[in-house]
Amino acid sequence: MARSAGRETDPLKMYTVVMALLVVVMGVLWYVIDGKRKTYAKANVRAEQLMTGKGLRSSGLDDTPKTIPDLALAVERLSYTYEQATGGGGIDRKGNRHISQEMMESVAVAAGLNQTGSSGERRTPNNARGFETLTQNFDYESMSGGPLEVWRLLTLLYNIESRGRYRVSEVGWEVADPKDNALKGPSDRVKRSRIEVALRGPILSGD
After folding, report:
1. Which span out of 89-103, 106-120, 140-154 was modeled with the highest average pLDDT?
2. End-to-end alpha-carbon separation of the chain, Å?
3. The whole model's pTM is what?
4. Which pLDDT tens digit goes with each residue over 152-206?
């Protein structure tokens, strides 16, 4: 019987062709993946520089901001002119920042509380980084006088934390007497409620 005239496939030749194609594909994938890896590595280094200032020229108070925190302070310095012109934001006529007493009273009323007293304002500057921190203590009782419900105090804390740079750094109270907690509902009334409020911002020219 005569053999077919067609050529038989050479297994070794096919194996060589397939392996060559795989090498080419793997080379292209490695090139693409290595390029993305280098791009991500550069992006991570740049992100660290923008957040911490590491590897960047240190910017002074009058220089163009180089980091995200410096940019935030620069934005507030720009808005300071408007705040000072309108008399709002806790800035007095001399250009000094203060914790807004009007704001503290309004958030207390919104929570159904009565502010009974406050301490003097304390100012802690950080000249090296160009910002200052103000702190002040406030005392509260219920609108009717006496102990208050814990949920009202928590509402007050939320109202303060929602006001931009204002933060509640300390909270303290004493559990009310049993007779004050004997009313219907949960026994959640407290007395001698005091909080410490902190406000951080750039050091202004009037300080």
Report:
1. 106-120
2. 110
3. 0.53
4. 899 999 989 888 778 999 999 888 877 777 655 555 788 889 999 998 887 765 5
Q: Which two tokens stand for residue 6?
A: 């067609």
Give me 176's structure tokens.
């009310």
Confidence of residue 147 (pLDDT cuts 50, 70, 90): confident
- Nearest Cα neighbor of 204 from 81, 109, 28 is 81
Spatial CB neighbours of 149, under 8 Å, sequence gap ≥ 6: 142, 188, 189, 190
Q: Please state the separation of Cα 12 from the chain's center in Å.
A: 64
> Based on the number of CB atoms within 10 Å of its own CB, is 147 exposed (0-12), middle (13-18) or buried (19 or more)?
buried
What is the C-alpha to C-alpha distance for residues 190 and 152, in angstroms, rounded to an integer? 10
SS (H, E, C) 112-156: CEEEEEECCCEEEEECCCCEEEEEEEEEEEECCCCCEEHHHHHHH
Strand partners, 200: 133
